[in-house]
Every structure is written in C-alpha cells, then in structure tokens.
Specification:
The chain has 326 residues and is an alpha+beta fold. The protein is 28% helix and 28% strand. It has one domain. Helix 2 (79-94) packs across helix 3.
Length: 326
C-alpha cells in the first residue's frame, strides 16, 4: 500500500452531554478547564486513546506482507518487552551485529507491527541499550492532535450519588454510602489534527492507515460510553487535503506542494464559523444547552477554496473541490 503523499489539516467537532470528557487527576478528576477562560479542555493524549481503543476493539484484517494493526500503548502491556522482541526480530531479519543498524531495523519493525507507533510515533529508548541514545530511539508520527477546547466556557457540576451497599465489613450497619461525580451539562469542543506525509515516509503510514484513522475518528465515542461519559458524539470532521496546484503539467512541483501544503491551516480552519443561533441569543442565553443551539457555517460551501486544497466533509460524506477544479 502506498505511503500517503498529501498533507491533511483536520478540524473535528465533538460534544459531551452530562459527562466528564477528560478528568484532571491533579484536580480531583474535575473536567479539565482553562482557568483564564473557563473553557473546557480535552488532552491530545485522551483523543489518541479513543483511536487506540477503537483499533483494539475493531482491528482491520491484516493482509499478507502488509503493515500490522496491533497497539503498543494498551492496558497491561509492558512496553520494554515489546522493544526486546523488536530487537530480537530485527536482528534475525538483518543478521547484523552493528547496534546502529539493529536500532534502525528495530524501529522499522515496530512501525510495521504497531499502528499507534506508525501513526502517533513514540519513545522507544526506554529499554534495551540498542535503542537508548540512538537516533532511532524516538519516532515522530505523522498524525498529531491538539488539545480539544470548548467553544464556550463550561460550568462543571459536582453531583452527589448514593449506594445501597457498603465496601468494608465494619460499615455493615450503614444503610447507604455517599459518593460524587463531576459532569459538564453540555459543551461543544473543537480539536485539530495535522497529518504530515514527510513523517509518514519515515514510519510507513499508508493510504490504508489514513482511511482507518478517519473511520476510527468518526466512531471514537460510539463504543466508549461509561458512567463518566454516557453521551459523547462526533459532530463534524472537516478534512482539508492539500493536492497541489500544478496538476499533470508539472508533476514534481505538484507533489512538493501537496506534501508541503498549499495554504496555512489557520486560514482553512477560519472558514468554519461556530456561534450560537440568533434565536438562542434573543432568549438571553450566552451559553449552549444542546447541540441544536449552535449554528455551524462552513463558508467554503459558498466561497472558493484556496487553490490546491479540497475539503472532505467526512461527517456528511461529500467533498468540496478547490477553485482550480481539482
């Protein structure tokens, strides 16, 4: 399968209803919040976890002589054991004693076998001396998330709950025990993903891997429900793909443009406007209570996209072409 050759800049919208999208262990598991704006935060690590969990539950079928789809960062996994296996396998494959060559071969083996290393990268220098201090001990992946941030400030609530059973024998005479949970009544979050073909070439991230990533992104909350997160939904995936402006007239330059990018991401993202509906504002509300309170406008549906860029509305299954007709 071919390595990806085009840059992608992605904006993803997701919301939470009466749940805790990402608890902060340094604040008693309260929903993460920016203290300067009171806007909610969801860490990049949290969002990558959703992709990994989807891949664990719904792994694609591996084809012969193709990349694997195992996940290295998962519950109960011992990473150094996987690194030792990689060194052993790589040594067997290349039949070399030189540590530099073994380190490179081990890195390539790990990228081939583990989807999350191939996509997100990883620190591989935690175990054997072969990878420690090596230029191949750290892998920068082509798929990088930003923090998700809520469009409006949030007001986390602490909800008291009761339980009709007890934990310890000495509490047997108690009728019930008390607890609490933290929720966000409603919030819409915006996250961004940057996908670089330059780093894809180094990890072997393919077009098939990219298609699987967007499938996982679309469904990352569909099988993630819990008492803490009973309802989270992906509301929009705006995928700006850079395809170049030259076409077949200058294939090499077109390839370079598609790899580098034809327009700055912030300009592309600026065309997605999110605000409360006018009728909601007229009711005197300055905060959302549900997704329908928002008006989301994609100006690129009415205005021409910058040359060399096309927009995939992956939540709607349609594509908007750039102004050079591609």
């Amino acid at each position: 399968m071919a390595i990806i050759t085009n840059r992608h800049d992605v904006m993803v919208l997701f919301d939470v209803v009466n749940g805790n999208p990402n608890g902060d262990p340094d604040a008693g598991n309260l929903p993460r919040i920016d203290p300067t704006t009171n806007k909610g935060l969801v860490s990049d690590v949290c969002l990558k976890r959703k992709i990994r969990n989807f891949m664990i539950e719904f792994p694609p079928q591996r084809k012969e002589n193709d990349n694997g789809f195992d996940i290295i960062v998962k519950q109960g996994n011992i990473i150094n054991n996987e690194l030792d296996t990689a060194i052993k396998k790589a040594t067997e494959e290349i039949k070399e004693k030189d540590d530099k060559k073994k380190a490179e071969a081990a890195m390539k083996w790990l990228c081939r076998e583990f989807y999350d290393i191939r996509a997100f990268g990883g620190v591989l220098s935690t175990g054997t001396d072969v990878l420690k201090g090596s230029a191949h001990g750290q892998v920068r992946g082509p798929v990088q998330f930003t923090f998700g941030q809520s469009v409006h400030p949030i007001t986390p609530l602490e909800i008291s709950i009761t339980r009709c059973t007890v934990t310890k024998p000495e509490d047997e005479k108690k009728e019930r025990t008390m607890g609490n949970k933290h929720i966000v009544p409603y919030a819409l979050y915006v996250g961004k993903v940057f996908i670089s073909p330059a780093f894809a070439e180094k990890t072997g991230f393919t077009e098939e891997d990219l298609a699987i990533f967007f499938e996982a992104l679309s469904h990352m909350f569909d099988h993630d429900q819990s008492a803490a997160r009973p309802e989270m939904n992906v509301r929009g995936i705006f995928d700006f793909e850079h395809i170049g402006t030259q076409g077949e007239t200058n294939a090499e330059q077109n390839k370079r443009e598609a790899r580098l990018g034809c327009c700055h991401a912030h300009k592309l993202f600026g065309g997605i406007e999110i605000d409360l509906k006018e009728e909601v504002k007229k009711q005197g509300k300055s905060w959302p209570e549900l997704f329908l309170d928002y008006n989301i406008q994609c100006k690129w549906e009415n205005e021409p996209l910058p040359a060399g860029v096309k927009l995939h509305l992956r939540h709607e299954g349609k594509t908007i072409l750039s102004n050079n007709g591609k």
